[in-house]
Amino acid sequence: MSEAKLKIITIAERLASLPPLSLEYDKLSVMTPYSARVNGALLALVFFEKLIAGQSDFMSQEVEDFLKSLSISAMSLVAKGVEPNQIFMLMFNESINQSIISNSGSNYEDRILSVLTGNMGLRKEDIECNVHDTTDASTEYDFRFKLRDKRSYGIGAKRTLRERYKQFIKTAHASDINVMITITIGLDLTEDKAVTIRENGVYIFVADEVYSDRGYLREQEGIFPTSELTETTLLGLT
Questions:
Q1: What is the average per-residue pLDDT within 30-52?
Q2: Per-residue pLDDT for 2 more than 80?
Q3: Cα–Cα distance between 126 and 230 in angstroms, integer?
Q4: Using CA atoms, how far apart are residues 36 and 175, in angstroms rounded to an integer?
Q5: DSSP reduced 3-state for 20
Q6: Considering the entire predicted model, what is its pTM?
Q7: Could you name the domain of life of the organism this protein comes from (predicted)?
Q8: Rounded to whole angstroms, how far apart are CA atoms 225 and 62?
Q9: Structure-model confidence comparison of residues 167 and 99, the more confident one
Q10: For the chain, where do the domains classified as CATH 3.40.91.80 start and end?
């Protein structure tokens, strides 16, 4: 399992050098748990083959003694027609799954929060998370806060928009929120969706790579790359 986790560590080192709301960061973070499972499964098979063969080339004498006894038990089970590798893989999968839960990295909302508290300098205690709109309880903001201009800002963090963007549009005209923002990777943000969202007064932030690649996003007022998710930008929104 430790060998499998090396893949996670390698990816984590790459992630540390990337903007947390970039498309590249998103792809790597999504890939991490799957990489751990694949590498873990392959390494487990190699390990079990060595175990059955009686190989125990390890540094610690205690570990070597334990694995020798485990090897004897495994060979005994094989002789009785039992497949100990299946038992081992079940145990391994449970172990690696727990490791993935604790090491796979933060989700999209966590990454946005890190930008709000990092780049923008907001304090966590000044940000309300997962709160409903006071006028339309069916709309939930992932983040709600105020800046030094005393205006209220509501952010919906949607990695992929699908049809959920309609929720903000419905609320935009009745809400007491001063500035409504949707933050998304942007891969499924079509021109029609972008126009509809902006026509209803909701601002959009998308991954820099998507923003640079799609002219209709750059040409539309009120749409920004996530690298511009700063206090200066937000204070300039009307």
A1: 64
A2: no
A3: 16
A4: 44
A5: coil
A6: 0.67
A7: Bacteria
A8: 55
A9: 167
A10: 109-235
